[in-house]
Amino acid sequence: MSIWKTLRSRAEDVRDRKILDLFDGDRAERYSAATGPFVFDYSKTNIDTPTRHLLIQLAEQSGLAEKREAMFSGAKINDTEGRAVLHTALRHLDTDIEIDGENVMTCVRETYDRMVRFADDVRGGKFRAAGGRITDVVNIGIGGSDLGPAMACLALAPYHDGPRCHFVSNVDGAHIHDTLAGLDPETTLVIVASKTFTTIETMTNAETAKAWMAAKVEDPAEQFVALSTSAEKTAAFGITPERVFGFADWVGGRYSMWGPIGLSLMIAIGPKHFRDFLSGAAAMDDHFRTAELSENLPVMLALVGMWHNQFCDFATRAVLPYDQRLSRLPAYLQQLEMESNGKRVSMDGEALPYHSGPVVWGEPGTNGQHAFYQLIHQGTRIIPCEFMIATKGHEPDLAHQHILLAANCLAQSEALMRGRSMEEARALMAAKGFEGAELERQAAHRVFPGSRPSTTLIYPMLTPEVFGGIVALYEHRVFVEGVILGINSFDQWGVELGKELALALQPVLTGEADGAGKDGSTLRLAQMVRDAQH
Ligand code: F6P
């Protein structure tokens, strides 16, 4: 029997087993993996020794070790685009790497040094805008050119001592309108972040920002920066090469905040903290590259995820950081995980015989508790939860609030696992004076099935190093899942069709084209938008 089938039947066999019953003396330690500041506890899942053994065998059989080396050494593993996948090189600045006989790190280091000088100039006031020192930075980008730096600026707020940073992504004019509304064009720096420099949302917003600035600033291009792989296109937009920070095509959009796409973050927190952020990720890379599979955090995070998704058939997973500053992490992970592993065919183009990546969603705790946790506890679908918590907050005066936060986090995973039986519910209702059929009815509503799986990632404090480590952990998890699924995690053809159709629909909405060949629904909705323009 193939390992996939064995794992499927194992999931079936242990489905009704109580997670709580698996706890013996030291299960919590034995079902945890640790490195540096992190402990990943997966003891509150239905995984036992034979299951873990099978999962590790699954990873071994997929050729994970060789594929991991192929990625780190610059092989062209993104083979539908003929590219290497080397975002990790951006955080190992001292290690040389050759692609096609060329040491690609010379260029990476040169750009990094320019970023540092520029960030220092902006932060220190040496870079002068029309109105003097820069007070505000607006990063215009979308997807990987937005989610990473936007999440990171929020995550590392306690280290933010540079100009204010704002992020505009949506082509909805409301986004840029509301962002620019409070800003002074004479002291604002606009960063146009786009790997391709063709993304319609970003280029449209960049033109809007340019016009906004031109109304008050004689030469707006002087206050524009570009982050892109296309020197030609940034020049055509009018940005001087001195303020263009380039990178190679082997940095995928959703893996790009470690390099130039992270410029807004570097300006916000300063080059020193940015370097710490890179070091935290580099330490996770080293761990991923060298630790035994059973002790390897990204590997175990991936295997637990696959156990739940591919073998237990739980279609979604909730990411629940008990850390308000990680409130954009779920959105970031939606791109990272779903754009990477939301695929339907294997590397060789064959339809997958199993499900690819799960739906990823979430919100920070405790907010989510007052919104969707009801379904997680008592709904008919099982949703594995990934909790995250720091042992300490950044605010010493508010330590009591951190204790309350942590108590809530731990209580949720406990409640999910423990549940509340019908007997317990009956006792509860009897104590309130209910009897007979009404007692039974009321008690049924108060039953929690329990044995709902969760994991907890715990770390000391959300510092730049820790934050870098968390993001790298999730990047490698995606890689491991992709390797085991046998898919290409580094392309994203699924976003293309919608882009093409939007371009074709634009003239239909303005009345320049009639929309021949379109379906009735699309035409009717288009007509409504068209009518509203007159
Ligand atoms: O449309 C998807 C996508 O290509 C993402 O993969 C990418 O992060 C985003 O668009 C933005 O692309 P760019 O940085 O080229 O503007």
UniProtKB/TrEMBL annotation:
Source organism superkingdom: Bacteria
Lineage, uppermost ranks: Bacteria, Pseudomonadati, Pseudomonadota, Alphaproteobacteria, Rhodobacterales
Catalysed reactions, as listed in the record: alpha-D-glucose 6-phosphate = beta-D-fructose 6-phosphate
Protein name: Glucose-6-phosphate isomerase
A Gene Ontology molecular function term of the record: glucose-6-phosphate isomerase activity
TM stretches of this protein: none
Gene3D superfamilies documented for this protein: 1.10.1390.10, Glucose-6-phosphate isomerase like protein, domain 1 (3.40.50.10490)
SUPFAM superfamilies: SIS domain
Naturally occurring in which organism (per UniProt): Thioclava kandeliae
Enzyme Commission number(s) from the entry: 5.3.1.9
Residues at the active site: 339, 370, 499
Alphabetized UniProt keyword annotations: Cytoplasm, Gluconeogenesis, Glycolysis, Isomerase
Chain's role: Catalyzes the reversible isomerization of glucose-6-phosphate to fructose-6-phosphate.
UniProt pathway: Carbohydrate biosynthesis; gluconeogenesis; Carbohydrate degradation; glycolysis; D-glyceraldehyde 3-phosphate and glycerone phosphate from D-glucose: step 2/4
Database matches in InterPro entries: G6P_Isomerase, G6P_Isomerase_C, Phosphoglucose_isomerase_CS, SIS_dom_sf, SIS_PGI_1, SIS_PGI_2
Signal peptide extent: none
PROSITE patterns in UniProt: P_GLUCOSE_ISOMERASE_1, P_GLUCOSE_ISOMERASE_2, P_GLUCOSE_ISOMERASE_3
Cell compartment(s), UniProt: Cytoplasm
Group of enzyme by EC: isomerase
Family according to the record: Belongs to the GPI family.
